[in-house]
């Protein structure tokens, strides 16, 4: 397969991973560059494998792992990460587009010479995944009375780790994730619509219960003018 395509799939996988968890793909890139030959970052991105940067990313990851598993707190965390996750996605796509991996030995000139396109693509992909995740979480929390928050969050973290590794080692499998994600988006949109419809029905029912009764229904002694 054309190396530019594989390079694009690697970037897509890493930026989508950032949409689930901002710090996992950046930490994966840094650790794998520092301790393995699975990815080799160019000098401009070598700072991702700096010991201090890795330590900071690890601390931020620990904070997010805890915050994202607590109902209500996870909504606040998602709101804060509306900026952070797309930024991380842009960095992940930008770094991978100029790096050599086990599947892309010679990075294509397209992304290398158009870093702005790579970073912008990563931002948009991560933002879309993040918004889908953030909009689906309230539905899941409501359906499970909050019990599902830690379960779903753990699944997202595991998916982020797996997707990061797959994007670097077997980028062709990113296509499987994309297909699965499309089905999830369809499911999430359907559930959100159903939830909104129930809320509207509930509000209408409550308004009907508290609306004043017509004067003709009042007891004769209580009617106006009696």
Give an overview in words:
- With 226 residues, the chain is mainly alpha-helical.
- It has one domain.
- It has eight helices and two strands.
- Helix 2 packs antiparallel against helix 3 (51-67).
- The termini are far apart.
- 34% of the residues are buried.
- The model has no long low-confidence stretch (mean pLDDT 83).
- Rg (CA only): 24 Å
> Which oligomeric state applies?
single chain
Helix content: over 70%
Counting structural domains, the number is 1
Global structural class: mainly alpha
Give the overall shape, derived from the CA principal axes. elongated
Give the topology, please.
Blueprint: H1 3-20, H2 23-35, E1 39-40, H3 51-67, H4 73-97, E2 100-101, H5 109-113, H6 115-144, H7 148-169, H8 174-210
Antiparallel strand pairs: 1-2
Helix pairs in contact: 1-2, 1-4, 1-6, 1-7, 2-3, 2-4, 2-7, 4-6, 6-8
Q: Which descriptors apply to this entry?
A:
226 residues; two-stranded antiparallel sheet; mainly alpha
């Amino acid at each position: 397969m054309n190396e530019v395509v594989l390079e694009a799939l690697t970037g897509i996988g890493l930026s989508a991973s950032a949409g689930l968890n901002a710090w996992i793909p950046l930490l994966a890139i840094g650790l794998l560059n520092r301790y393995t030959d699975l990815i080799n970052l160019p000098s401009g991105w070598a700072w991702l494998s700096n010991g201090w940067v890795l330590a900071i990313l690890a601390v931020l990851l620990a904070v997010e792992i805890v915050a994202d598993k607590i109902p209500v707190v996870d909504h606040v965390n998602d709101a804060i990460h509306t900026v952070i996750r797309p930024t991380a996605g842009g960095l992940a796509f930008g770094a991978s587009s100029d790096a050599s991996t086990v599947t892309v030995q010679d990075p294509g000139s397209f992304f290398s010479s158009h870093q702005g396109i790579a970073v912008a693509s990563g931002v948009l992909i991560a933002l879309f995944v993040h918004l889908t995740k953030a909009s689906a979480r309230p539905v899941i929390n409501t359906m499970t009375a909050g019990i599902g928050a830690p379960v779903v969050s753990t699944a997202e973290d595991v998916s982020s780790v797996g997707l990061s590794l797959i994007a670097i080692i077997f980028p062709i499998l990113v296509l499987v994730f994309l297909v699965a994600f499309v089905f999830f988006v369809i499911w999430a949109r359907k559930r959100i619509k159903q939830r909104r419809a129930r809320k509207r029905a509930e509000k209408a029912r409550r308004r009907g219960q508290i609306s004043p009764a017509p004067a003709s229904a009042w007891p004769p002694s209580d009617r106006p003018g009696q």
